Amino acid sequence: MPEFIKLETLIEDNGTDRRKARVALAQSDDPEALQQLLKQYWTWHFEKSLTEAARLLLATNLGWERMRPLTTPPIGEIISPLGHALNHTDQNVRDAAFQVLDSMVDIPTGEVLIGEELTSLWVEEFQIARYPVTNAQYQRFIQETGHRQPQSWEDGAYPEKKGDHPVTEVSCEDAEAYAAWTGCRLPAFEEWERTARGDHGDIFPWGNEIDKPRCNTVELGAGGTTPVGAFPDGVSPFGCYDMLGNVWEWTSTWYDEDNPHFRVVRGGAWYYNHDYSTCTSYDFFSKEYTEFVIGFRIAR
């Protein structure tokens, strides 16, 4: 294996040289090399259990050097390396991408401050998905169960290179079927808000101010969903991504328990502005309803 060399001394203007430098560092056994690469390219959560998956993904030609940071609206369409990985011919590369997406977070027992009134509510410990369920994850479910596909899909296939975008056009009943297939469930209203807010009562997961793009709302100008994990600056206090914007997320909570037909969704979506994408934002829809701005994440 090559000795570790600082990334900046290896990267040149030529894209081929940059790729060679990235591959060499990803394949080295030096932990500092991996950390340098993660800092340069990686937007998703990283922990020790993902080391081998990250090394494989970083050593694969997935367009790492071409990915633009989501900092200057309007951004237009973004295809992330993880999206390319999910369409890769090598099953090992695809499995590595799924390992990243399937991550769960432990949320400890504690108090959550609900709504603008900051009403205190005690929530028992639970686990929740780090990311909303993606097209690729939902496709696995369809292939193994024969469940119906979202309306815009063709022949069981999601839109090209959007495997790591949140799945949409799923009803609450579809989301519950997926969750049950994984041995999970949908999060309750208060569990979702505890995940988004942590132990404080801020308007957004990161505080009370909008200082830069930290989630996918209409102000970003994406014109659609964005890859999950694309906004590390918008991560929740417990380490969950895309809690706000991108897609509304189904919960297990009825809007009216005396008339159990409408389910609550949380967090806003790309089609809405920041006023509708806060830690207190919610709406409700019929449990059979599907729309291009509604997705979900799972809990247990």
Please estimate the helix content: 25-40%
The low-confidence runs, each spanning 5 or more residues with pLDDT under 50, are 1-13
Termini Cα gap: 42 Å
**Can you give the mean pLDDT?**
92
Query: How many strands appear in the DSSP assignment?
Result: 8
Question: What composes the largest sheet?
Answer: 4 strands, mixed
* Class computed from helices, strands and strand pairing: alpha+beta
What is the CATH third-level topology name of the domain at 104-295? paralog of FGE (formylglycine-generating enzyme)
Radius of gyration (Å)? 19 Å
Give the CATH superfamily of the domain at 104-295: paralog of FGE (formylglycine-generating enzyme)
Proportion of beta-strand residues: 5-15%
Q: Figure out the total of helices.
A: 9
- Per CATH, the architecture of the domain at 104-295 is Alpha-Beta Complex
